[in-house]
């Protein structure tokens, strides 16, 4: 009888153990309203959901190159005659008004996504409005892949060049390193070819120039072979992250992609980390797979379940580390890895928004930065959802460069309520983190909220004064403007 009772107790314990996370995920789903808020007529917003701006007009460019050129020249003539500034937009994932200007004209480049491949020289020519996922799907048929891109494929090519995004490709500088050349329409309507040998200064200014020097039309990118990759994973103490990274990733010729993650639950806050990396294996890579909607939505709910929930944060860490153990040595194609949409973490709660930030820290201050975060972050009421770590090699191409040496990018994701007090709290935290990064000879990333003071900006980017002077040289009538330009110039 006792044995029978013990059996029942074990079954009950198992049911409870399984049901608690299921109930948590169901509750997370039920709390979402999934209402798509559209900007009112004559207004535009960005991914922050906090940049609602009234504009003169939003113009969708045509799909065909010849039609685009005619249209853009007409718009530039109108803009200069009426003194109405132009801003350039793609997927609008920047968060500080970089793609809009009050009372201005917004050019939506998304329709323009022509693609041509040169398989012999490994070059992709692509329209600036194309998403990375468009490029990946196109290249997959040729057995090719993107050389350098961000973690999600939902951004546009032109947008990524304009912010000089970086990826998780091993030992790689930002996207600038993979850009061979691009065509640019300047303020007068003239089309210029920009490369390291042709209009080289303009090439450097436009990459990471936030749309302030002209309209990017076509981009020539280096591409690489698609490959089959094997997943590897290790849990480490953050103090041992650098040594493990060098041993397992940097000194391993087989590794192609790598990223780290810090534990952000109150329990063991920033005391644990994971290092995830992918090694090349022999064999023909599989064609792109069609992901299961159920699996993708479950992943999203696990992530969303961390919002304002210590239990959710622990659950996500336990599930991710547990699943990683099971997936070690499993293979996946490079294109499948790169082809992930930002919908995997989509916020469907209209009362809050998710805010990205990123800080670039030199190796010698890596541990100190994490230790400082342990004192800074818990003293704020903003909800931290994620910290990812990516190594970024020195950028020798862009003018307003953030990786002036080899650095580690700490990518933060916060959940913020759409209230004034939350906005002020976020502003104070952002300034504190930026000051901390600069004190450690680091920088911060510029595509995000305009919370950081002009003084800190000038300290982090001492080349900024010359950058804005050159802006007036190449665009003397200030045809191209956005909120970022107005705030920092």
Written description of the protein model:
With 489 residues, this protein is α+β, with helices and mostly antiparallel strands. The protein has a domain at 110-225: Uridine Diphospho-n-acetylenolpyruvylglucosamine Reductase, domain 3 (2-Layer Sandwich), CATH 3.30.465.10. Helices cover 35% and strands 23% of the residues. The chain contains 14 helices and 19 strands. It has helices at residues 2-31, 65-82, 132-140, 157-163, 200-206, 241-250, 293-304, 310-327, 334-338, 366-376, 420-439, 454-460, 464-474, 483-488, and strands at 43-44, 53-54, 57-60, 86-89, 105-108, 115-118, 123-127, 144-146, 179-185, 191-195, 215-225, 228-236, 255-262, 273-281, 331-333, 352-362, 383-392, 407-417, 443-444. The strands form four sheets. It has an eight-stranded antiparallel β-sheet. Strands 6, 7, 8, 9, 10 and 11 form a six-stranded antiparallel β-sheet that branches. Strand 9 (179-185) and strand 10 form a beta hairpin. Helix 10 (366-376) runs antiparallel to helix 11 (420-439). The radius of gyration is 23 Å and the shape is globular. The relative contact order is 0.13. The model is unreliable at 6-16 (pLDDT under 50).
Question: Which runs of at least 5 residues are low in confidence (pLDDT < 50)?
Answer: 6-16
- How many helices does DSSP assign? 14
Shape: globular
Mean pLDDT: 93
The profile of the biggest β sheet is: 8 strands, antiparallel
What CATH first level of the domain at 110-225 would be assigned? Alpha Beta
- Give the DSSP E fraction (strand runs of 2 or more residues): 15-25%
């Amino acid at each position: 009888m006792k044995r029978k009772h013990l059996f029942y107790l074990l079954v009950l314990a198992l049911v409870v153990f399984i049901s608690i996370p299921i109930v948590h995920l169901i509750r997370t789903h039920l709390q979402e309203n999934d209402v798509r808020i559209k900007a009112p007529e004559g207004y535009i917003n960005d991914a922050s959901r906090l940049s609602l701006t009234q504009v003169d007009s939003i113009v969708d460019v045509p799909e065909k190159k010849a039609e685009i050129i005619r249209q853009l020249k007409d718009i530039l003539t109108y803009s200069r005659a009426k003194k109405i500034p132009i801003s350039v937009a793609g997927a609008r994932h920047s968060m500080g008004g970089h793609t809009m200007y009050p009372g201005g004209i917004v050019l939506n480049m998304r329709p323009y996504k022509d693609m041509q491949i040169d398989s012999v020289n490994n070059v992709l020519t692509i329209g600036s409005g194309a998403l990375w996922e468009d490029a990946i799907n196109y290249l997959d048929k040729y057995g090719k892949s993107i050389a350098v891109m961000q973690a999600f494929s939902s951004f546009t090519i032109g947008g990524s060049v304009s912010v000089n995004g970086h990826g998780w490709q091993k030992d790689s500088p930002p996207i600038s390193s993979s850009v061979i050349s691009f065509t640019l329409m300047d303020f007068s309507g003239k089309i210029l070819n920009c490369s390291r040998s042709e209009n080289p200064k303009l090439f450097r200014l436009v990459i990471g120039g936030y749309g302030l020097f002209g309209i990017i039309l076509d981009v020539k990118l280096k591409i690489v072979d698609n490959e089959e990759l094997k997943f590897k994973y290790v849990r480490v103490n953050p103090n041992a992250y650098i040594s493990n990274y060098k041993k397992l990733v940097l000194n391993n010729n087989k590794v192609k992609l790598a990223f780290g993650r810090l534990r952000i639950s109150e329990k063991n806050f920033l005391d644990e980390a994971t290092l995830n990396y992918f090694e090349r294996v022999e064999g023909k890579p599989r064609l792109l797979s069609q992901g299961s909607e159920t699996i993708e939505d479950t992943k999203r709910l696990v992530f969303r379940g961390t919002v304002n929930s210590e239990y959710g944060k622990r659950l996500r860490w336990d599930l991710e580390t547990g699943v990683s153990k099971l997936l070690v040595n499993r293979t996946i194609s490079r294109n499948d890895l790169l082809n992930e949409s930002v919908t995997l973490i989509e916020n469907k709660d209209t009362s809050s928004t998710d805010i990205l930030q990123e800080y670039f820290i030199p190796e010698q201050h890596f541990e100190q930065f994490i230790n400082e975060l342990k004192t800074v972050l818990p003293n704020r009421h903003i909800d931290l959802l994620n910290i990812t770590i990516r190594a970024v090699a020195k950028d020798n191409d862009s003018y307003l460069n953030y990786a002036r040496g080899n650095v580690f990018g700490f990518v933060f994701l916060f959940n913020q309520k759409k209230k004034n007090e939350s906005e002020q709290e976020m502003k104070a935290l952002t300034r504190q983190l930026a000051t901390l990064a600069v004190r450690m000879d680091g920088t911060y990333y510029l595509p995000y909220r305009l919370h950081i003071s002009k003084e800190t900006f000038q300290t982090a980017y001492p080349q900024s004064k010359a950058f804005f002077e050159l802006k007036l040289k190449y665009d003397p009538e200030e045809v191209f403007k956005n909120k970022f330009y107005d705030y920092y110039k």
